[in-house]
Amino acid sequence: MPSEDKRKQDQSGPGTHKRLRNNEQNNNTVDDPSPDFSLDITDEGISKCGVLKWVTVKNFMCHDHLKFEFSPHINFVQGRNGSGKSAILTAVVIGLGGMARWTNRGNNLRDLIKHGKHTAVIEIGINNSGCNAFKPESYGNTIIVERRISLSAAASYKVKACDGKVVSVKKDELSRMLEHFNLQVDNPVTILNQDMSRSFFNTTEPKMLFKLFLKATQLQQMKDDYADLERNIESSLRTIECRKECLPDLEKEVEEQRIHYQFSLSLREKGNRLKELRHELAWAKIINLEQEKAKAEKDLENHTKARKEIQEKIEELQKVLEQESEVRERNTKLLEEATSHLATVSKEVREVDGKMRKIRNELKEKQSQFNTTEKKVRTLASEISTLRSAIEKDNDGAKSRWAAVRAEWQRKMNIVEDEIKELMQNLKTENTHFDNLQHTLDLRKSEKTHLDLEEKALSKQLNGFERELKGLQGQKGSHLTVYGQWVPQLLEKILHAHSNGLFIKKPVGPMGAFIKVRDTKWAHVAERVLGKRITSFCVDNQKDEKVLRELMKSITFDQQSMPIVSVSKFRDKVLDVSRFETSSSKYPSLWSILDISDTVVANTVIDQMQVESILLIPTAQEAGRRARFLQVL
């Protein structure tokens, strides 16, 4: 049988070719159950493509594992019965797609599996080098055919490349390869088994010999092929006649399909145009979003700046408040000191007033005495003048008598004048002391008035600071006031109304109180998307909505508008948006960064704002690249 061209090897090496053994050698190796093959090669022959290189069987017939490598030219296989000569020939037939009955070794492939085993494997290597190679780009220089026979399943094929990679598992591929190499495993000229050769030599009947001739020369195969062709021609003619009858209908159908095709082309053009318009719309939306983003960033910057200024102002006010508190403490101390001093001064003033009243009384008495004395002096002066006139008229004898009287009156008058001078001096001193006391009292009154005015001003300023601080502390203490100063009042009314049974289900809100952002860098985006919804309330039904709106009408919202009221049936579980959520390994969705603690608020956000369909991309450039990628898809 033709086989592979082996390379020339060193005769001293382990691969030295075996020489043909004679019968004596065969008899001497009778204990060896393995088949032996002899090669007689005088020079290196080059095997052609389609030549067998080796056959390997496992659990096949009576062999656990048997590998047989063919020489490049003719192989003579000899050995005892059961050594594997027929097994090699049978393996070639079965491995290349033959049937069990062709080998006369059984009626079923399962009969060829070794007793006690479940599967048998046949592997055949075929040379594929040369100009007539079969798909050399797929198989390389060797084609490996593997056939697996199983007791519990149908036989299977694997056609492999030289590196063991499976190229095909279909028998059609094996049939094409055998036809390409003209390998006919059922041709007795190609493979003549023992039973066929015995029948050939023992048969003298011309009919059987001719049958063998037809089979060996492939004339029988050709005859069968011609018969199949004639049947196919007849069937084709009948089909053609039938198709001719159907031709008008087919032509009509072709025309209809052509119209449909033209319509499809038109639809495709319109679809392409629609796609372009959608892309333009998407880019227009992106541009608008970029503009909105720029505006939002500017607003955010302004708000951040304003917030910073307010924070600085609060810090300044706190510092001023601390300073004013210190000033107030100092002024309080000064006021206490001034009050104490004023009390002392008032006491002194009262004492001075008492003294002044006493002095005035004394002065009045002295003035009365002075007036009386002055009146007496005038009277005495008048009397003196009268007496002097009388004395001048008297004679000289009477002068001596009136001299003593005049001296007495002169003495009394001097005494009175001294008393008058003393009284005048005392009056002047008391007037000076009174003026000093009056001046001191006026100064104390002026100081008290100034301190009272300063205390009132400081108290007014301090009260203003305290009111402002209380307002700031009130906002800091209640986090709900960030959604509006009216929120605590409305929540209190809702709680009261619910306790009185006015609501079927208690409203939920404001929504922003139940929403947090896991990643703060997306907080402005979340605020932009949610918008006025952060101050909105959720109700379960129309009746609750009506009651809530009546409560809202009783509240003053300052400059804010009345909050939104969303009506939707309350659910116990959050909606599952995993099937519809926009997903990306690189960018998160808006839904994924929101931490919503209330089920009703979460479902309202999903229903009304579709946050699961919003993908968060940091920059417009990345958004543009992703949009172009989606356009390509």
TrEMBL record:
SUPFAM superfamilies: P-loop containing nucleoside triphosphate hydrolases (SSF52540). It is found in: Chromosome; Nucleus. Residues 55-319 form the Rad50/SbcC-type AAA domain. It comes from the Eukaryota. One of its GO terms (biological process) is double-strand break repair via homologous recombination. One of its GO terms (molecular function) is ATP binding. Its main location: nucleus. Transmembrane segments: none annotated. Residues 286-475 form a coiled coil. Pfam families: AAA_23 (PF13476). Residues 1-36 are annotated as: Disordered. PANTHER family: STRUCTURAL MAINTENANCE OF CHROMOSOMES 5,6 SMC5, SMC6 (PTHR19306), STRUCTURAL MAINTENANCE OF CHROMOSOMES PROTEIN 6 (PTHR19306:SF6). Belongs to the SMC family. SMC6 subfamily. This is Rad50/SbcC-type AAA domain-containing protein. It comes from Scylla olivacea. The lineage of its organism: Eukaryota, Metazoa, Ecdysozoa, Arthropoda, Crustacea.
